[in-house]
Design brief:
Elements lengths: L5 H42 L4 H30 L22 E2 L6 E5 L4 E4 L4 E2 L1
Antiparallel strand pairs: 1-2, 2-3, 3-4
Helix pairs in contact: 1-2
Bound molecules: zinc ion (ZN).
């Protein structure tokens, strides 16, 4: 290992300073994003009847330990979870938990069949069989 020359040290010092500035900038940007997101999340979660405090604590903790990646993960998870918590706490118009199947008649006996979403199949109670 030969010692680094003066010019290399000088470059490292310049790059180091710039990296520090960038890092501080990223930290401030993340902090700002966390504050903005926390404010938005608070209002959004409350309008959906969700526990806003839990999400804000989660957001701050994730941002603290995971940086911007942790922050992004919590925001994405929140966006996914909030899909099940529509505004007003009620199902939005046209929202259905399962694709609603229309009434269907049994091809054998002609009787009405029941749709079982968990099996993705029709069941004919008259025949006692899946169709
Ligand atoms: Zn039938």
């Amino acid at each position: 290992m030969r010692p680094p020359s003066r010019s290399v040290v000088a470059v490292l010092q310049i790059v180091g300073t710039e990296l520090l500035v960038i890092l501080i900038g990223v930290c401030f940007a993340t902090l700002l994003a966390v504050i903005v997101a926390a404010l938005w999340l608070h209002g959004d979660a409350q309008s959906r009847g969700m526990d806003a405090t839990v999400w804000i604590v989660l957001l701050i903790l994730a941002s603290f330990f995971g940086g911007f990646i942790g922050f992004a993960i919590v925001v994405v998870v929140y966006l996914v979870v909030r899909g099940n918590h529509p505004v007003g706490g009620a199902m939005p118009y046209g929202y259905v938990p399962y694709p609603v199947a229309p009434q269907a008649a049994c091809p054998v006996c002609g009787g009405p069949m029941t749709w079982y979403p968990e099996y993705q199949r029709w069941y004919c109670p008259s025949c006692g069989q899946y169709r």
